[in-house]
Amino acid sequence: MTAPAQPPATPDLLYSRDEEDLRAAVRALLADRADAPTVIAATESDTPYEQRLWSSLATGIGAAGLLVPEKLGGQGASHREAAVVLEELGRSVAPAPYLTSSVVATETLLALGGEDGPAAALLGELASGARTAVLAVPFATPPAGAAAALTSRDGTVRGVADAAVADVLLVPTTEGLYAVEAADPGVAVRPLVPLDLTRPLAAVTLTGAAGTLLADVDASAAAVRRGLLAGAGLLASEQLGLAEWCLTETVRYTRERHQFNRPVGSFQSLKHRMAQLWLEVVSARAAARNAADALATRSPDAPLAVAVAQAYCSGVAVHAAEECVQLHGGIGMTWEHPAHLYLKRAKADSIAYGTAGRHRQAVAESAELPAP
Asked: By C-alpha distance, which of 204, 177, 175 is closest to 122?
């Protein structure tokens, strides 16, 4: 007689007290060091990342090591806490290599396992905030494209997010996964002009660069897939934070802006638009939290939860940013107002780690239905 099947665990979509405390600390830091004028100034400079901000976030708060076990020098937290950090980074569109280094690169290294060796040593350095690393694949690579992302140690990879500021490149090749120092003479990083100026892209050219082999080709493909899956899943939390800021600021502005001796937000057509946006943001929060919880609990449904979150949240973020720009009227079109930063980040995020269409296809395939 077979045992009855256990019902699936109910995902926890609520925030714990510890998560809210973490949110408060990150929000206070970003309000102090990554307000709109500071972020706009950073996009006009040659140094997109402000080192004091990153040091405070990574080391002072300890956000860089949230996913790293305590025995390796990290905080021993989970994807739920990392998602909270990304929500706040999305709310401020702060330029920081958190998603690429503290999530994707870190998760890729964690997938290799082991408590010693070069991968474990590098994890300790990333957790401390002393160094940053990026996975040397195009920013648009979806989790299902991990095998196709394998390259060689002699060639060029375009569109690598945050490569210009990374200390270490994790290069997945047909021979295995290598850790390559960005300062190696065989590495050339050429900055590209991105749509989103708060997250720089670069073309990475390798010509005989020395590197440390971290894993063979089979383990490399699995690790890269896990890293990209975590990146796509937690990117939904960044998109959620972005959409929440756009909605909050748009509601505030339409309450204060008057036409015909009335707040413009009192006009019924605008009420309907903001009510619709609120419904979308609430749904995006559920999808993003479900993805973070599935990743944190290592649920077998994590790939589906991530695909659902990305299929929905990317569109919500773009819609919220578009409404923010439009409903702010003329001021929303100016460089001095931060609305354009949110629209550019939302647009860039909408193709990061796979487009919404690719993720909808993944959902359809998991349900064995024809793709829309």
From this structure: 177
Residues 6+ apart with CB under 8 A from 46: none
d(CA 58, CA 22): 13
Structure tokens at 73: 């020098």
Nearest-angstrom CA–CA distance, 293 and 306: 10
The structure's pTM equals: 0.93
Query: 263 — phi, psi (to 5°)?
Result: -65, 135
From the list 127, 104, 38, the residue with the least C-alpha distance to 295 is: 104
The pLDDT tens digits along the chain (372 residues) read: 445 555 567 888 899 999 999 999 999 999 999 999 999 998 888 777 888 899 999 999 999 999 999 999 999 999 999 999 999 999 999 999 999 999 999 999 999 987 888 999 999 999 999 999 999 999 999 998 877 666 777 789 999 999 999 999 999 988 899 999 999 999 999 999 999 999 999 999 999 888 899 999 888 989 999 999 999 999 999 999 999 999 999 999 888 877 777 877 677 878 899 999 999 999 999 999 999 999 999 999 999 999 999 999 999 999 999 999 999 888 888 888 999 999 999 999 999 999 999 999 989 888 765 555
